[in-house]
Amino acid sequence: MANEKDSTAKEMERLEKERRRTEAEIARLRSYLETEMERAPGEDEDAPDAAADIYEREKTLSLIRALEDKLASIEHALRSTAIGKYGICERCGERIDPARLEIMPHTSLCVRCQSELERRTRPRRQPSVEG
Ligand SMILES: [Zn+2]
Questions:
Q1: How far is the CA of 52 from the centre of ligand 1 (A)?
Q2: Count of domains in the chain?
Q3: pLDDT digits (tens, 9 = 90+) for 85-104
């Protein structure tokens, strides 16, 4: 089936592209973070935006973490593609909606399973204690 093979190649290409983009983004954020860290903190000790700086760093760090998670998912999806399991929900075995794969090429769960899992990991909305 030439068609099937073509679409697999296309999926892999798309995932590879996504992977490269994610890796580039991680590298960019990391070097941004390094530059930030290099700025001697003692220089202007009473800088009013020291807290804002810390906040920015935390935000960048969590962004990096999220991207690393995404990278792991992409790599996982690439392996799935290699064994012909790409686009199949890992939880229920149903085909994942192509429109969903279009937006999130690295996903390994269908919409239904994803939202079920999210409900389970975040059972209820906690009122924020910050701020
Ligand atoms: Zn599913």
A1: 41
A2: 1
A3: 999 999 999 999 999 998 88
